[in-house]
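Progress against Task 2.4 (sequence-to-structure conversion) is shown through the following example record, which the project officer requested during the mid-term review.
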Amino acid sequence: MRSLLFTLFLLLGFQLFAQEEYIRSFHSDLKVDASGLLTVTETIEVYAAGNQIRRGIVRTLPLSGTDYRYKTVKTEYKVIGVKMNGQDSPYDTEKQQGSLYINVGDDSFLEPGWYTFQITYTAEGQLGYFEDYDELYWNVNGFGWVFRIENISAAVQIPQEAEFLQSSCYTGYSGSTEQNCSTETLPDGRLIFRAENLASGQNLTIATGFTKGIVSLPPPPTFIEQFGLLIFTGIMTLVLLVYYIYTWQKYGVDPPKPTVIPEFNPPSDLSPASMGMLHKGYFWGELISASIVHLAVNGYLRIEEKSKDQLFGLFKSTEFHLVKLKEEDDALPKEERKLMQYFFTNGNIAVIDGKFSSHFKSMYQAYMNSLVTEHKPFLTQGSNWKFWLGPVFIFIIYALVARSFDFGNYTSSNLDFNLENVPILPLAIFFMVFIIISLIKKRGTNWLFFSLIGLLFLGGSYYLFSKSAISLNNFILIVFIVFAVISFFTYIYLIRRPSEEKLDLRARIDGFMRYLSAAEERQLQMFNPPKLTPEVFEKLLPYAMAFKVDKIWGQKFQTLMERASLQNQHRTSWYSGSRAYSYGALGNHINRSLTNSINSSSGTNSSGGSGSSGGGSSGGGRGGGGGGGR
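Structure tokens generated for the chain above:
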């Protein structure tokens, strides 16, 4: 019985092994001719079981790589022919994800068994040209194969006038320096490399140096190929700067600003939220607290702050009860009417406890929309957006023309530069901002200092990137993109030209804020300010909150009350809290606490290298790629 079970086990194991898809033999014939053209013939013997190999195989070849100078270069392949079991086979090619895919086979399914595929292709520019020798440094199979390889070999043929001077081979995963491989010279003069038992994702890399000067050097790049993009980028940058400066000087220079004079009442009867938004130029969440206090000061509601014990009195939480005192009317600004409608939908008391509420979120959105809708036309007035189209048109032309230049492609090795290279580009970008603004405004002597510093960092970044396999064209493109983005947004800011009416209103708003933010009353005496009474303090407190000067406003009033010994003779009727606050702290406390609760409730909150001399690694040369079934 045991013998029978053992026999069945062996048969089952043999069957499972027989069904495994793998490469029994991968042989590559590499022929280098005197022109430098490399002809590759790959003979791949695989076992197909219908798992991944159903209709044929896929061979992938990288469309870019790093040459002997560590520069990124493109690779163009020409497929000469494809065979399966000695017969011509249908195939198609496609480029995607930085690789050339050679799909061997048609739509017919293959029967399980052994199949031999042969792929022949040529590639130019695959050699390295060193001082004492020329070199072929080649990844035979690449790291992308999903199958294990039982036997792998590569035979190299060079012109008859040349002789092999040195050779090395490497096996394993990418970056491995293992040399589990052998080298032998064949009777016909070819050099053959062999290795065995490569796991999925492992590669055989071969490198051989031979007599220098037999193989023709590649033609040098033309002047346009070398410097075309640099010249074109310089021209487009000049055009862009001329456009920026001309349109800014003609349409973007602001009219003279009115003199800011302190004002003692809200200009144009603006609400606190409107005042704060027009002052800042955008909406922000703290405005809602100013609106609530404004409603309270005007008698529409009362604010009751309550403290609650949490976790057996170890902690305390704060919640606000808003008690409705009278109905909203047309005297209220639109955004405050929205608050009244949402707060008191289901009664006369609204509780803000810091817990998320979809109702409060809707209220917050409606409040914001009301302010944005009302003031967006005024805030965007004079934006001169039509002048933005000029730079956009220039960017489109640049992108279309730049595509015709050779950039190479980024590979993992290109991105693997030293850590000291990383901070230089952000610093270069940072100082480019100073260059642009300094050249336009030229304020004082700092513009020259920052321009020199910026150029120093840009030069340093180019030097470091030039050591990191990034070509000149790639660097030019990076710099232009950075320049284009920064200059465009700087231009958007500078081309805005507010009307005299807009400047006048802003001057009045600034004057009103100057009154509220003046720490000492005597600073304003020459302008005959009104007497600061408790009523005036409360009336203007919401505006101080909207300007974020409520603490200064409160302290100023507190000082006056203390001088008059009246600090204990007035109590506000629109607010009650669990603790007593001085006037100097009351507004600031309400602003911080109320804003935090509302936000929570609404949920807003190096030189070149040789491989044949022994300094290489698996995957360090050209070629490579991988493959699989289809």
